[in-house]
Fold this protein.
Amino acid sequence: MRPLIIDSVLGAIGKRTISVFKTIHNVSTLLNNIAYWTVVSPLRGKRIRFKATVSEIVKAGYNAIPIVTVIAFFVGIILALQSAYQLRKFGAIIYVANLLGVSITRELGPIITAIIVAGRSGSAFAAEIGSMKASEEVDALVTMGINPIRFLVVPKLLALMLMQPALTAIFDLVGIGGGFFLSISLLEITPHRYYTQTINAILVKDLMTGLVKAWAFGVVITCVGAYHGFQVEAGAEEVGLRTTASVVSSIFLVIFFDFFFTTLFYYFL
Amino acid sequence: METAIDVKGMTTYYGEREVLKNLTLSIPRAKTTVIVGGSGCGKTTLLKHLISLLKPAKGTIEVNGKNIAGMFGSDLDEFRKKMGVLFQGAALLNSLTLTENVALPLREHTRLKEPVIDIIVRMKLDLVGLSGFGNFYPSQLSGGMKKRAGIARAMAMDPELLFFDEPSAGLDPVTAAGLDELILKLHKAFSLTLVVVTHELASIFTIADYVIMLDAGNIVFMGNLDELKASSHPKVRVFLERKAEEEFLSPEEYFKIISGS
Ligand SMILES: Nc1ncnc2c1ncn2[C@@H]1O[C@H](COP(=O)(O)OP(=O)(O)OP(=O)(O)O)[C@@H](O)[C@H]1O
Ligand SMILES: [Mg+2]
């Protein structure tokens, strides 16, 4: 007997629902485990892998400094030029310093750094964990009684929790430096004026909200990378797919969280 | 016969496909048990249940009297410290050298000083004939060397239970025989409970004390070597005589296969 159309439609809806619930279940289990092995288990006296954390800090943080610096410098220059284009109409060119200082520390610094790190390290996390999953290395860890989350994810998470704000701070500094460089050379603002204008424009609050966001983005990028890595079952193709997916979804989630935090800070700070 | 592992009524699915069908078996203590069977019959799957990487849908798996199918978290970790596993693809951590690979369980689970760990690692690598390769990365080793390094890692914590998945698959006959020798040596020296998955006939007759044969998720034979040779079960005979199994299909059945209905 042929199955009725209604059967197959309901079947498809059912299957889709099950897979959505499965994803939610997987994600929440992973987050729960990450929280446990990062916060609770060290409190219970289980050592954190200090050496591995340092090596992740070097790979994900220290090695990213050149690219962050270069991009920040150019973004600073571009932003200064674009704002000068408008502000000169009102003879308010000195406000380039305000615009640049505030928009970089509050918004562009955290978000562009997060996109760079998602592309550099988030993808690397997914690829590393994914290929370890595919070659049964993760299973081997489990059979040795070593928790893969503690072994693989926690060092990366700690590294990004530290380095994401650090890289963002570097971005802020160099980005403003780029604007400064352009302003004193092409826009004929004196260094001293630009400096005092910037100092007066940026509040500690602006800096802090930017760095808090950066910290959260670090957490998001690590968790997304880990999630996609652990989803790999077998095969190199899947590793590639998951790596791409991790970059796309961490950029999406970073922007979503940015929206969330910005709204929060706008109303409550 | 004292048993180390008792499996009762175990059934497993991958998705909707039943891969292991209501298996009941026991594995004797301090003996070498060999699990044999054709490719895809579920040997690796069975092994993964015995080491609790997979949980059965039904049934119990008792190791030393404790049901590991219902065990989670730190209890399971305690159990895992007493066992060693060699995976079908060795599964050494590619980012670590051989020395670091073998030292890993020791560093994670013991508070031994580095010099002591160093000595243990050298002993284990020497045991499998890999002294001098400590600073090599897994990618710099041949297949057989990886398998032996995997054995060294499995032995690191001096386990009571050892599980090897196809230690000699894909190796030349001489290297494979060398691995069998190694398994015999380990067995003699440490009187471990060993579970070895293989489909090399030569291996079976060299190392096995006890044989379990699977076919399509069912047990078709359990017993010692003499019983194996004497068995008249058709699947056993086919396996021992290395005959290709011929499927006789009627024209109607063949038509069904090629028309895909
Ligand atoms: N992760 C998986 N998902 C779905 N099916 C699987 C999975 N792993 C194995 N199978 C299926 O289960 C069956 C048993 O697989 P298993 O790996 O246990 O075979 P095996 O006896 O070890 O074979 P071989 O000797 O080739 O290693 C196979 O038919 C395989 O297709
Ligand atoms: Mg197998």
